[in-house]
Every structure is written in C-alpha cells, then in structure tokens.
From TrEMBL:
The lineage of its organism: Bacteria, Pseudomonadati, Myxococcota, Myxococcia, Myxococcales. It comes from the Bacteria. This is DUF2381 family protein. InterPro entries: Mxa_paralog_2268.
C-alpha cells in the first residue's frame, strides 16, 4: 500500500520576495508545477508589452498580465534540470528577471502559488510582508519547541525511538503485517505491529534518486470516515537520507486515537516526503489492538 500522490491539504503558499535582500541575484527563482497557477504580484503595474517568457512554447499556457500581477500556468511539470526565463517590466521601466523551475526536492513549501515581489524595503507593504514572515517563523519555532518538550516525556515517542533503532525486542509489539512498494525515487518496506493498547508501523525508506536526498516532511493520522486528525508519535533515524542510503520512520498510535464517539474506528496513516508528495500510507484497523 505504498504510493506516491500529491498531498491535497496543503495551505496556500504566499512567499514574499524582497529584491533588496538579494542584491547579488540577477535572476530570482519561481517554483512552478504543471496545471497549477502561480501568480507574481508587484507593488506597481506591469507593462504587458515588455513582459515576456523565453522558450515557453509547448510548456506553459500563454502569459497573462492583470494590472500588477503576472499569471503563470505550466502545461506539465518541468524537468528537474529545466528552467524557463521570465522578464517582467514594470510601468516605471524596472526590469526583474526570474527563472521558472520545478520545485523538485525543495525542502520548504514546494511550488509557489503566489509570490509578492517588493522593490522598496521601506514601503508599508514590504515591511508588513517582512513582519508576517518573521511572525510566522517565530510561531513555527515556538510550536516546534513545545512539541519537543512534550515528546521528551512521551511514552509513545520513546517506543517509536526504540522501533526506529531496530530494538523491537525491547518493545511490547509483535509483527502483524508487511507491505512494500516503490516509485522512481524511493523504495519503501513497511512492517505493521500490534501491541497492548497500541499499534505501530515501521517504514524503511531507501533513497533511489540519482542526485537528491530524501527527508520526512510530515506524517498524518486521520480517521477513515471523516478524515479527523489524530495524534501519532513519530521518530526517524536521520533527518535526511542521502542518495543510495536507507533510513527508518517509526510511528506509534495509542488506542485512544481509534476512538470516535465512543466507538473504535479505522485510521489512515500517511507519510509525506520533503516535496509534499505522499510517500506511503497504510490503513490501521482496531483489530490490531491487542487485548
């Protein structure tokens, strides 16, 4: 039941780009995906007659300019090593060069949905965007620190760490099932374990990509009916799996996660890799809970 599929619950990606922060960068990268619209938004109106893509035929829909926005839509995904130049000219004559790239194995947010481009760092809009970015980063750091604090005393995280390290004999789990799968970039071998009041899954991931590392972006545990999120303890053996190497992602689910309105229900466990694609999923049924 291992698979690769695009994650459908990703929040809209709005990325501020302050040109003054990158004075040495003559060309700014914009990350695009096939059949996904990406919008570049500027402080001033865009001169449509002097804004152009180079070598885009057959790879993108015709360029669209709407006042201060440039709208892009690739017909299909670009290759990892492929780039399409874009020159945007504003009504005041300012030229800004971009290079459209596939997000590939980009570590952060994948494809851009909207890029807000600011030339003047002192403008209200530019300072507001910078403040929002800083607050978002601070919030993420606070959330991460709180998560680490809770994980230090979590029994389930301790069990997940033992499973990830291969010390299965030191846990109360017994093997219940196996499954495997592969795509062009990776191979997954997984084991499902049952224990007293808990269920565990261990994913062994081999990175078969020719150039780029693999890492875990996120894991989701949801109810089969309704898709309600549930808590899951995750541990990995390494933050990044290099080319040709393998790593382990271990998950432990408590009995309480299976409860919905007083009744035990089935769950879906999904793991997503760094580019936002779903790497593997498994259905966990209440029957796995040993008594």
């Amino acid at each position: 039941m291992a698979s690769a599929a695009v994650a459908s619950d990703r929040e809209p990606v709005i990325r501020p780009l302050l040109l003054s922060e990158h004075p040495s960068d003559a060309t700014h990268r914009v990350y695009v995906r096939g059949q996904v619209v990406t919008t570049l938004r500027f402080e001033k109106a865009v001169d449509a007659s002097k804004t152009k893509l180079l070598g885009w035929e057959g790879r993108l829909e015709p360029l669209a300019v709407v006042r201060n926005k440039v709208v892009l839509e690739p017909i299909h995904d670009l290759a990892d090593d492929e780039g399409i130049p874009l020159i945007v000219t504003l009504v005041d004559g300012t030229e800004v060069a971009f290079l459209l790239r596939h997000p590939g194995w980009r570590q952060s947010d994948g494809a851009d949905q909207q890029v807000d481009v600011f030339k003047d760092p002192e403008s209200y809009a530019s300072m507001h965007a910078a403040l929002r970015k800083a607050l978002k980063e601070k919030s993420a750091l606070t959330e991460e620190n709180e998560r680490y604090r809770k994980e230090e005393t979590s029994e389930d995280h301790a069990l997940a760490a033992l499973l990830a390290s291969g010390a299965i004999a030191q846990t109360p789990f017994k093997l219940a099932d196996r499954f495997s799968g592969k795509d062009d970039d990776s191979e997954v071998d997984a084991q499902v374990f049952q224990g007293k009041g808990k269920v565990a899954v261990v994913f062994k991931v081999k990175n078969t990509h020719s150039q780029k590392p693999w890492s875990l972006k996120s894991a989701r545990l949801v109810t089969k009916n309704g898709g309600h999120a549930r808590a899951v303890a995750i541990r990995v053996t390494t933050r990044e799996i290099t080319v040709g190497s393998s790593g382990v992602v271990a998950a432990v689910v408590d009995r309480s996660a299976f409860m919905e309105e007083g009744v035990l229900t089935s769950l879906f466990l999904e793991i997503y890799r760094q580019d936002g694609l779903r790497q593997a999923f498994v259905q966990l049924d209440p029957a796995l809970l040993a008594r």
